[in-house]
Design goal:
Layout: H1 12-24, H2 43-50, H3 101-113, H4 117-126, H5 132-135, E1 143-144, E2 150-154, H6 159-164, H7 171-182, E3 190-194, H8 208-225, E4 229-233, H9 235-242, H10 248-251, E5 256-259, E6 264-270, H11 273-278, H12 283-299
Parallel strand pairs: 2-3, 2-4, 4-6
Antiparallel strand pairs: 1-3, 5-6
Protein name: Type-4 uracil-DNA glycosylase
EC number: 3.2.2.27
Enzyme class: hydrolase
Length: 300
């Protein structure tokens, strides 16, 4: 490979991924490559913007002669620069990147460099390869006890989680707490995280590109926490980490194996608490899954 060449131009798929992110974030138009500060515009420009419209075009024989070139000390009128509309929320997206293979590689290298969970949190906080950090209020890294035997993994944080910087603290989190209590556990006895640590705009589903970029971090987080049992809350997290395509109905309730590269971890998938809030009749199946979890803990 010729190392003197510059980086390859982004592919059409990469550009589409960036446009999808900006559209989901509320950007509905592109005006200029660089922002313009209208408060810094010259006074002459502001005056020209507020001046009344010019009269209709005059007959050629009645037009005044063209003014001569301004002499020394005479400043020609300046033309007002276009003023772009402010972006939703008053923020900007100057730090947005085009997701691609290079971004995934950088995520893998950053995750691999972390030797502790605190170092991994710092890596994620400094990582700018996922555009979701531009619209999220907080990094949602973890909650609970990192030394616990059980680790629960969801897909992505929601509004309440984004505000507090903790996973599963909204209505679905309250239901999860009750489900854990029913089998004799609480948050001090489990470790909780998400595949994607930033809230997608409008609580939309993370794109495949966003998930792939964040995957090395959650994989490293599981490796560092090293639990005895993994519980996937919903099919999305199980599909990402196990590489399966089964739906949650087919996947739930049966024991599987997750390979960290160092050891095999027993894992089970169950319904996401948010789904149970919408479909309360499915709680009976989730209860069976949690009973299986309790039995596995008792068996050691």
């Amino acid at each position: 490979m010729d190392m003197t060449q510059g980086p390859a131009a982004p592919s059409l798929r990469d550009l589409e991924a960036l446009l999808d992110f900006l559209q989901a974030a509320g950007v509905d138009g592109l005006l200029e490559e660089a922002p313009v500060d209208r408060f810094a515009l010259p006074a002459e420009a502001e005056a020209s913007r507020s001046a009344p419209a010019q009269r209709p075009e005059m007959r050629p024989d009645l037009r005044p002669a063209a003014p001569a070139t301004p002499g020394p000390g005479v400043t020609a009128p300046t033309r007002a620069a276009p003023v772009p509309a402010p972006l939703p929320g008053g923020g900007g997206y100057d730090g947005a990147v085009i997701p691609g293979e290079e971004t995934v590689v950088s995520a893998r290298e950053a995750a691999r460099s972390a030797e502790t969970l605190e170092a991994l949190r710092a890596c994620l906080a400094a990582f700018k390869g996922c555009n979701l950090h531009l619209t999220a209020k907080n990094l949602v890294f973890d909650d609970g006890n990192p030394q616990a035997r059980v680790m629960l993994v969801g897909e992505a944080p929601g509004r309440d989680e984004d505000l507090q910087g903790l996973p599963f603290v909204g209505r679905s989190g309250q239901l999860l707490d009750r489900m854990l209590k029913a089998i004799g556990l609480d948050r001090s006895q489990v470790y909780i995280a998400n595949v994607v640590p930033w809230r997608p705009p409008g609580n939309r589903t993370p794109t495949p590109q966003e998930t792939e970029i964040c995957k090395p971090f959650i994989a490293r987080q599981i490796e560092l926490a090293d639990p005895d049992i993994l519980v996937f809350l919903g099919a999305a997290s199980a599909k990402v980490l196990l590489g399966v395509q089964d739906g949650i109905r087919k996947m739930r309730g049966r024991w599987m194996t997750y390979d960290t590269g160092r050891r095999q971890i027993r894992c089970i998938a169950t319904f996401h608490p948010a789904y149970l809030l919408r479909s309360p009749l499915e709680k009976r199946l989730a209860w069976r899954d949690f009973l299986a979890l309790r039995q596995a803990l008792l068996e050691g």
